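Reading group handout, session on sequence-to-structure problems. Before we discuss, look at one worked example. The prompt was deliberately terse, the way you'd type it at a terminal:

> structure Luciferase-like monooxygenase

The input record follows.
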Amino acid sequence: MPALTDTQLKDTKFSILELAPIREDQNVEFSLKHALALAQHAEKLGYERLWLAEHHNMDGIASSATAVLLGYILANTQKIRLGSGGIMLPNHAPLVVAEQFGTLATLYPNRIELGLGRAPGTDPTTMRALRRGRQETEDQFPQDVLEILSYFADAQPQQSIKATPGQGTHVPVWLLGSSLFSAQLAARLGLPYSFASHFAPRMLGQAIQLYRDNFQPSEYLDKPYVSMGVPTVVASTDAEAEYLATSVYQRILALLTGQSLKLKAPIESMEGRWSVSEKMAVQNFLAMAQIGSPETVKKGLENLLEKYQVDEFIFTCDIYDTDKRLENFSLLMDLKK
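And the output record:
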């Protein structure tokens, strides 16, 4: 593989995945308004896109009504592309998803895109509450994706069900995944693919290779296009970044142990807060994370790019202080200069 150059990092697209984290000392309204502030900040900085993730029954995540929040952000930004990262398709009827995103695409042309996930993104009890007796399973995911694509395409002469709005909007569709299934499907359908390495990095390399090896050009895409999720905590020094990252460590530990996911303030040390096995589990979860000064993070991103040759990084950030969180994305974009 050729040696990496600064130009390659410079040419790699930078995007943001936002989960609208809820701080333990703030309310949900604060988080939703900060999501807008982040999108406006990202737009000024030149980020490619900002996606919102769908999660349910999680007290630390405010982006559950993804399409609704996207509408709020679209109305208060000018040009940045916005979308879902992703809509968890087992929770929804494909026609409803197409109508929602078709409406957004009609109101805000060429700015909305739809990332689709195969898992429900929540616990079994909440999943049943979302479905209310519907019998959809992950096995139906390929058929549901094809159905949504048909609703965004130009209407066919004998088409009995049409998405209105939606039909003919040609909303770009991505497939998301943390295993090999969606990589295979994205390759077969010729769709862009985003791997959820911000929380499930283990199969990243295998999934990307499978996608590239099996990619079939389509009306949507002529060659493979891959993005990877990267958790980030960037600050002026390595020491400050490591301090700020304790909020991330506490949040992941809480996720793994079934505790509140509300974002906690940083602390001086995690010693005594986790066992050896818990620390290892958090580190495995964050295997792709880039934590440190701009110089440290630049080297880390260059290493990821050299290893995986992705087209795009999509960054997450769970810094507690909102100003420091915005600064994280400013420092990241500075790395492309």
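Points for discussion. First: The two ends are 24 Å apart (CA to CA). Second: DSSP finds 13 helices and nine strands in the chain.
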